[in-house]
Known about the structure:
Blueprint: H1 9-25, H2 31-38, H3 46-58, E1 62-63, E2 72-73, H4 75-84, H5 96-105, H6 112-125, E3 130-136, H7 137-140, E4 143-152, E5 155-162, E6 167-173, H8 180-193, H9 199-212, H10 219-229, E7 240-245, H11 257-268, H12 270-280, E8 289-292, E9 304-313, E10 316-326, H13 331-349
Antiparallel strand pairs: 1-2, 3-7, 3-10, 4-5, 5-6, 8-9, 9-10
Amino acid sequence: xxxxxxxxxxxxxxxxxxxxxxxxxxxxxxxxxxxxxxxxxxxxxxxxxxxxxxxxxxxxxxxxxxxxxxxxxxxxxxxxxxxxxxxxxxxxxxxxxxxxxxxxxxxxxxxxxxxxxxxxxxxxxxxxxxxxxxxxxxxxxxxxxxxxxxxxxxxxxxxxxxxxxxxxxxxxxxxxxxxxxxxxxxxxxxxxxxxxxxxxxxxxxxxxxxxxxxxxxxxxxxxxxxxxxxxxxxxxxxxxxxxxxxxxxxxxxxxxxxxxxxxxxxxxxxxxxxxxxxxxxxxxxxxxxxxxxxxxxxxxxxxxxxxxxxxxxxxxxxxxxxxxxxxxxxxxxxxxxxxxxxxxxxxxxxxxx
Length: 353
């Protein structure tokens, strides 16, 4: 367990230097390289560094691929490194230039779908990994307003706009014709009584009220019953919306072809990715979550790291944004970027379009 590791300040310094050197080069790190990087800090010469590296290897933090080669960090070392990073992803550590670059990338975004698609692209472009963004329909399909337009006898256009900016429109073929006044009354009732309710909850509540008041059901409720029965509050959108971009970034990893093929195949299974994010990123917390090694959930992703955060919209959970990348990722920069993008959803989408 990482939390149980007890290493000295010198060992921590050497391990951090090895990790950062390995992230930058991808090559095993020798004691001479550490001595050069540290200068004469703490009075550690090559011999002292070699002893420290041997101690770190005994602790399970370093591996030696070949007898004459340097050392490489183990997954345990990366987990330890992540825990030592300043905490978690402070926005002040994101450079003004990077922040401006991210904000410019979201110019013109006005709906949740656009935000998610742009997020996957932005996170892939600024990291060495795969950008992922998803939202569940339960979170995004909250009623902003609904409008009914009579097209002809028995035909009505229903336009439902959600709080996340999703527009759902469909033509309803009714068994009973409704006048423009009746349609306007029904829409006003829904908008005034069910603002910010999920469409599933609205359907359930209307069904309950109609059943409860069947003996004295007024004309307006009968109109609503007909509209809902024909699909005014139905959603034929998929249960969850997910965008994934940046598969090509993984082609430069040091994995053999078969391992890489298995990884890419696993990443193409979008439902598995959603399950992965749900398993590791807590929607109740806004901290960035970093998970090194995902083999417990998806064996083919054992060589990947997950850096993810939940997003908010109007104070409610909206979804998850994340990067799936190699263990040699720039952790602090990626954590900062994910944290910043996670905050943008509320700013960009809080005013319905």
